[in-house]
UniProtKB/TrEMBL annotation:
SUPFAM superfamilies: Ribokinase-like. Signal peptide: none annotated. Gene3D superfamilies: 3.40.1190.20. This is Carbohydrate kinase PfkB domain-containing protein. It comes from Trichoderma parareesei. InterPro entries: Ketohexokinase-related (IPR052562), Ribokinase-like (IPR029056).
């Protein structure tokens, strides 16, 4: 899976409760619990796959994502979040392979999100911070060259930077023509996502995209298998 990996900092009033309301500007409000956990759409999807795959499934899962220095505490926390039963992920116990991640040795902070969820309105306010250089097409091509053309592979892309991702998808088609490719299309206002979806075999659309664009239009506009997330 190709996408961003975050460390989320979540402010809570109680272990499973949001804060009473979003704070007013220039005001002070107390939170009684702070939770830091690994986030990002692709890492979260890999966590779900860990729960679905059994020890007899001959499936290897990889994350391709820019991360800070491999020796940094932030990267250690991310690696340990994928480990099994609390074992250190520096052993072979983790089914998610992070060897293809792009370690930015000059950086120590991971991409981060600071999240406040309001009990009064149900809103979730997120402030993102990401100082890591994004993956380049050349870096992705080097990752692809580590796989053979005869291997059965499925590559899933988060649609964060459509122009770069589209170049990566086309490079992947050239080097591994038999690879299955899926993309995530989430934000309706982001330019380039329609062109990206047109290149994929499977497209995962968000509920917000389907509500804005219409489910029938999505299926007519794409030759790919269409999956709409969160729409009953």
């Amino acid at each position: 899976m190709v996408g961003a990996c975050y460390l989320d900092t979540i402010l809570r009033k109680a272990p499973s409760s949001p804060v009473p309301q979003f704070p007013a500007e220039d005001a002070k409000q107390r939170a009684s619990r702070l939770e830091i956990r690994r986030g990002g759409n692709c890492p979260n999807s890999l966590e779900v796959l860990q729960q679905l795959l059994g020890p007899r499934d001959a499936v290897r899962t990889y994350l391709v994502s820019p991360l800070p220095s491999e020796s940094s505490p932030a990267t250690r926390r991310i690696k340990d979040s994928f480990s099994l039963a609390g074992e250190s992920s520096f052993t072979s116990s983790s089914p998610v392979n992070l060897d293809l991640c792009l370690y930015r040795e000059a950086y120590t902070q991971a991409a981060s999100s600071y999240i406040i969820r309001s009990e009064s309105t149900g809103s979730r306010t997120i402030v993102n911070y990401n100082d890591l250089p994004e993956m380049t097409v050349g870096e992705f091509e080097a990752v692809v060259r580590r796989f053979g053309a005869s291997e059965d592979t499925w590559w899933h892309f988060e649609g964060r930077i459509p122009d770069t991702t589209l170049e990566c998808v086309r490079a992947l088609r050239d080097q591994l023509p038999n690879a299955q490719i899926s993309v995530e299309v989430e934000k309706p206002g982001r330019d380039g996502l329609r062109e990206l979806a047109a290149e994929a075999d499977v497209v995962f659309y968000s509920r917000s995209w389907a509500e804005v664009c219409g489910t029938c239009d999505l299926r007519r506009a794409s030759k790919a298998v269409v999956v709409i997330i969160g729409l009953s």
